[in-house]
Fold this sequence. Notes:
Elements lengths: L1 E6 L2 E4 L4 E9 L6 E7 L6 E7 L4 E4 L7 E6 L4 E6 L8 E8 L12 E2 L3 E6 L1
Parallel strand pairs: 2-11
Antiparallel strand pairs: 1-3, 3-8, 4-5, 4-9, 5-6, 7-8, 9-10, 9-11
Amino acid sequence: QVQLVESGGGLVQAGGSLRLSCAASGRTFSTYAMGWFRQAPGKEREFVAAYAWSDSITVYEDSVKGRFTISRDNAKNTLYLQMNSLKPEDTGVYYCAARTGSYSTSSMSYDYWGQGTQVTVSS
């Protein structure tokens, strides 16, 4: 199976930046798409961004377009989420996920999940 470990979260002021990392191990050859989701207190887990290298597709939630960038370093088996111009509404626990199919915006479509990393944006 696949193991995912997120890192890079923390506390930042509005307008600041953070870069999240997701290190993958195990049977990573069977995963063809990865994504980032987040969950704010009292809210459902929501889609943030996805990357499907086999289809050359990168997709973002409307609220983060132009501010967040998803990328992957295949040599390091690591997925990144560069977050710029952060807003208080970006606060939440960010999860890395992977699946064996193409990209998806639904959390139910993903097979593997990391433990999450907290991102807090103060105003």
